[in-house]
Amino acid sequence: xxxxxxxxxxxxxxxxxxxxxxxxxxxxxxxxxxxxxxxxxxxxxxxxxxxxxxxxxxxxxxxxxxxxxxxxxxxxxxxxxxxxxxxxxxxxxxxxxxxxxxxxxxxxxxxxxxxxxxxxxxxxxxxxxxxxxxxxxxxxxx
Length: 142
What we know:
Layout: H1 3-60, E1 71-75, E2 80-86, E3 92-100, E4 103-114, E5 117-126
Antiparallel strand pairs: 1-2, 2-3, 3-4, 4-5
């Protein structure tokens, strides 16, 4: 084998290693991008949940003149809003929305109407709106 042949085979080996390395880096970059998107989505969900819980706590301290129509109040400090209404059974239902980057999360909670306000039930958390679909539509935020 001549020195020229050895040089070409060495160069080929180096190029092959560079090619394999670039494929590995490309794969790692794709995995990193996918995980970054997952972390960003989870971070957004945590921000929304935190805002909605804070809005629920804030709503209990507000004055509400409850009737059978949704009444909403903006919680500008956290970019959230709370809406409340009295049901036909005389109970109150509260919805707290967290709007973060045009996505929104709504938490629902049962409450009891008290003088010009509400008091949450101890076990009043609700996963979904318990009313008929048309009655669950909150007014458009302004």
